[in-house]
Amino acid sequence: MKKEMNRNKKPFEIRTDLAVEERESFPGDGGEISGVSLREWTEPESRIKMTEVRILNERGSAAMRKPVGVYLTLEIDSMTNKDESELALISEELSRQILRHAVGLLAEAPRSGPIHILIAGLGNPSVTPDSLGPKVARKLQITRQLEHQYGNHFCQSQNLPVISAIVPGVMAQTGMETSEILTGILRETHPHLLIAVDALAARSVRRLGTTIQITDTGIHPGSGVGNHRHSLTRESLGIPVLAIGVPTVVGAAAIIHDTVSCLTNALLSSPATQGLGSYLDGLTPEEQYQLIRELLEPEFGSLYVTPPDADELISTVSATVSEGINQALFDIPKIISDIG
User: Fold this and answer.
1) Coil, strand, or helix at residue 317?
2) Is 159 exposed, middle or buried (0-12, 13-18, 19+ CB in 10 A)?
3) Rg over CA atoms, the chain
């Protein structure tokens, strides 16, 4: 037992919203983490690498610092340098994965009448790296107004989902928690599923705009750039929540930490700086990271970094994600009908 606990103990904690990065921070291939299962494969049609992390119990949750549930990651080399046909393949693959998870969640939810899905575009539309959710929401194909125009069962007669969307903003803009706004909307509209789209923070720069995470655990305190403090989960809202996120920022301390080994080697190679190099080399990874934070944060605060092409990145990613959601949602009624 003691050996297993030591093996599962991580040396230090660097902020990430991605379960795949939490898994990568463990030594080994991740399969040895108690309470966590790992599956990796490449989809034959899109050639996109998929990583599924399943946190099975509270032990796995404590080790991963994530709630129990399924975390699926689509890993793409880049979305900003692809042509329309390549982006279409990404949207189609994302659609298939959203459909798979959404149908599973809807199968568990009691419902009558047409399927009603609410999409929440989380974040601050005025801040580029935090504007992913609002931009996705604005590009969705909304159908709920058709029910008002043509009658309560129009969408059901046409085999369409009832789709509505909301951009709740951030507390600095509205004076209200996102959860408060959504609770009121849920009480009035009674959707069967909430899909929350948000910008995330990554551990590694290479994840920015190249990773899409889908999870059935919802959005939790500390998640996303905007730090939505109240959980948006099945437990807090009373309906299933599917969260879709793309990392758009990385902590500055994490970026500097990744360069420490190169800096140390450079310092050790010169007689004039060997002493400082030896000092850094003698620190544990945790001590190195804490030193960086102590130097950075008093001067700059908790600083996050986004790519220089953030505008282009958010525009491309939001279009790709919204198209994937649109494709998935309009296939749901048929899939549910075939199952039932």
Assistant:
1) helix
2) middle
3) 22
Q: Are 78 and 123 in contact (CB under 8 A)?
A: no
Q: Which tokens is 302 given?
A: 């908790």
Measured from the Cβ of residue 163, the count of other Cβ atoms closer than 10 Å reads 25
Helix (H, G, I), strand (E, B) or coil at 248: strand
Q: Contact at 8 Å (CB) between 329 and 103?
A: no
Other Cβ atoms less than 10 A from the Cβ of 191: the count is 23
Assess contact for 28 and 36: CB atoms under 8 A: no
Question: Taking a C-beta distance cutoff of 8 angstroms, is the pair 197, 245 a contact?
Answer: yes
What angle separates helix 310-339 from helix 84-108, to the nearest 10 degrees? 50
For the whole model, what pTM was predicted? 0.86
CA angle 155, 156, 158 (to 5 degrees): 65
How many angstroms separate the CA atoms of 202 and 210, rounded?
11
d(CA 244, CA 198): 7
pLDDT mean values, one per 10 residues, the chain (340 residues)? 41 72 66 83 90 94 90 89 88 96 85 88 93 97 94 89 94 88 95 96 89 92 52 92 95 81 88 90 82 82 85 95 97 80
The amino acid that residue 126 corresponds to is S
User: Residue 95's CB: how many other CB atoms inside 10 A?
Assistant: 19
> Angle at the Cα of 100 (from 238 to 80), degrees rounded to 5?
105
Q: Mind giving me the DSSP string for 38-62?
A: EEEEE-TTT--EEEEEEE-SHHHHH
Contact of 63 with 33, CB cutoff 8 Å: yes
pLDDT at 210: 92
What six digits make up the tokens of 163? 């789709």
